[in-house]
Amino acid sequence: MADNTNSKDVNPFQKQKNKEEMQKQLITFALMIVFTIIAFVVVAAGVMDSMFVIPILLILAVVQVGFQFYYFMHLKDKGHDMPAVMIYGGIWAALLTLAGLGVITWW
Amino acid sequence: MSTAASQKRGFGTVLWDYLTTVDHKKIAHLYLFGGGFFFLLGGLEALAIRIQLLQPENDFVSAGFYNEILTMHGTTMIFLAAMPLIFAIMNAVVPLQIGARDVAFPFLNSLGFWLFLFGGLLLNCSWFLGGAPDAGWTGYVPLSITSPGHGVDFYVMGLQIAGAGTLIGGINFLATIVTMRAPGMTYMRMPLFSWTTFITSILILFAFPALTVGLFLLMFDRMFGSAFFDVGLGGNAIIWQHLFWIFGHPEVYILILPLFGVFSEVISTFSKKRLFGYTAMVFATILIAFLGFMVWAHHMFAVGLGPVANSIFSLATMAIAVPTGIKIFNWLATMWGGRITINSAMLWTLGFIPTFTIGGMTGVMVASVVADYQYHDSYFVVAHFHYVIVGGTVFGIFAALHYWWPKMFGRVLNEAMGKLTFWTFFIGFHLTFFIQHFLGLMGMPRRYWTYLEGQQLDLGNQISTVGAFFMAFGVIVFVINAIYTAVKGEKAADDPWDGRTLEWSIASPPAHYNFKQMPLVRGLDALWIEKMEGKGRLTPAEPLGDIHMPNSSFLPFMMSLGLFIAGLGFIYQVNYNWAYILLFGGMAIMLGSMLARSLKDDHGYHIPKDELEREVD
């Protein structure tokens, strides 16, 4: 890992990989902006019932969080097992808490 | 450079060195002194409480001041004494145990310490600025919302700043343990103290944000006129209790798990045996951490959550007794048939086992909802949590200090004084708190500043107060011991206890780069394996080369100072406009320091290979 820190002499293979990586980043970035626009349009247009709007917004949000984790935070790359464990652990702890509070409030 | 460290240096040089250091070993010293100072302060507050309760209708302190002392005793002991002392041990030991030259983020390590110190100082400034917080260490609303004066504001800002430091420290240890283990040290070869530090750091990472959020809401309510907790304006007072205990329950595991690791190391070393059931110990720790996140509402049985919620949380709580029991039996089995040496560190450990087991047993008692309605808010609960926190955490800190003092300071603590500390503290502890179980069962409510005559509470309280003075005596002896050792204690050998783990394979105290060459780890108890099957010392995993070291920096101190000043500004902007100068000035200092850190590249420095070669082995 430490050998790759010098950016001046990148070998062609690495260069190709960097290029592909940048493409993926840009595509993801564009998709995220599109998703955000969709979210705003869906609400602003007011054509749909809130029963449909809310699940759509939630799905869009989950997909964006996934993009954030897997593309921008590199969870898709090798050697990210421990960060993945941590992130899923954190999600689990948060879900438990929310479930607990939900059960207490509405049971 | 490193060999010149033995030369006499001026006081100013040493002070500047400690103010700017990013070396984990020196930050461990800082945490120890800072945490030790607040431990003594919290102890004084405890003595004041016990003197006040010595006889019925005593008026040693006024009722209002008693509330302040009570609140500050809890807050100080949990956030400003126990946590930093644990961080002291982690900083001193973990990088050495996993074979690293420093933590992953040395700069952040220093920042974490200074944030804790300035947070603690801010909290304690309240004594001189119109009264300390008086709403209990849990700061329950609506009491903490309606509490007059600025006491609770100091609680909010002080804990917010100190909490940020803790969060930084936890993340730092996570990154260190994930990325910086020596070659060959797989997760299942990590010493148990490193494991428990790892799990504790996970708990810190997931639990502290709940406190941060809760404190922010309280801050907005008190200082900026919001109404998150104001029922009259549509808020909800119970949310504070949920947020506080979603943090607060993992917090008690943050306080105890690292010490479980310490006891595992101490028992294994002084029984001359590999830890019994190492794998079970690791998974028991993970299980405790996992369960620790779904039991918070057992602090709220009397709130009225309903029978279903209470039952679920009651069951989950009792489940924690299982992995804890696994640990207790594993420690006993480690000692079984071992060649046991009993010294101060081992005495604290042996004292811990029955004490903590009593605390665990009363824990299961209060976990039962029906019984808890009787115990709730009585001295029974006070006795319970002092048995687990003092019997577990404080005993563990003392064990760790006796065990690792040679590695931290290069001197061995005096054994005779160590034993005197243990016996007086141990007897004093049980005198103070055992009787409180019965005081609680007899109906003495906690947090009250006095009680009436003729209720059979007199004798129990007198015994309790006598015990508190025994504990104080023990602590004073320990302080004398530390000073005596620093002045004329015996110089420690590199490996005074015939240790088993990596930290005993290097000098006491270690060179500032810890390991000249990364060691090759061949199994659990790496040094012991080499002692039994190898040359008695660790095989290097790399050729001798330049060592990359981080530069010292004064910026962490400045950032924390900025937040301290801004904290005062936040508190006083409610009354005075000039406080905005403090607020913006402090923020400017902090943000300016952050900007300086971001813009100026700091690549550290290298210790050249030939200098390392010149040093005698």
Automatic annotation (TrEMBL), chain A:
It is found in: Cell membrane. This is Cytochrome c oxidase subunit IVB. The keyword Acyltransferase does not apply. Its main location: membrane. The keyword Oxidoreductase applies. InterPro entries: Cyt_c_oxidase_su4_bacillaceae, Cyt_c_oxidase_su4_prok. GO terms for molecular function: oxidoreductase activity. Pfam families: COX4_pro (PF03626). Keywords: Cell membrane, Membrane, Oxidoreductase, Transmembrane, Transmembrane helix. It comes from Lentibacillus salicampi.
From TrEMBL, chain B:
Pathway: Energy metabolism; oxidative phosphorylation. Keywords: Cell membrane, Copper, Electron transport, Heme, Iron, Membrane, Metal-binding, Oxidoreductase, Respiratory chain, Translocase, Transmembrane, Transmembrane helix, Transport. The chain crosses the membrane at residues 30-49, 69-94, 106-129, 154-180, 192-219, 239-263, 275-296, 308-333, 345-367, 379-401, 422-443, 463-484, 554-572, 578-596. It holds the Pfam family COX1. It is a multi-pass membrane protein. One of its GO terms (molecular function) is cytochrome-c oxidase activity. It is an enzyme of class 7 (translocase). It is found in: Cell membrane. Residues 10-522 form the Cytochrome oxidase subunit I profile domain. It catalyses: 4 Fe(II)-[cytochrome c] + O2 + 8 H(+)(in) = 4 Fe(III)-[cytochrome c] + 2 H2O + 4 H(+)(out). The keyword Disulfide bond does not apply. Its EC number is 7.1.1.9. The keyword Transmembrane helix applies. One of its GO terms (biological process) is respiratory electron transport chain. GO terms for cellular component: plasma membrane. PROSITE patterns: COX1, COX1_CUB. InterPro entries: Cyt_c_oxase-like_su1_dom (IPR023616), Cyt_c_oxase-like_su1_sf (IPR036927), Cyt_C_Oxase_1 (IPR000883), Cyt_c_Oxase_su1_BS (IPR023615), Cyt_c_oxidase_su1_bac (IPR014241). Cytochrome c oxidase is the component of the respiratory chain that catalyzes the reduction of oxygen to water. Subunits 1-3 form the functional core of the enzyme complex. CO I is the catalytic subunit of the enzyme. Electrons originating in cytochrome c are transferred via the copper A center of subunit 2 and heme A of subunit 1 to the bimetallic center formed by heme A3 and copper B. Belongs to the heme-copper respiratory oxidase family. This is Cytochrome c oxidase subunit 1. The lineage of its organism: Bacteria, Bacillati, Bacillota, Bacilli, Bacillales.
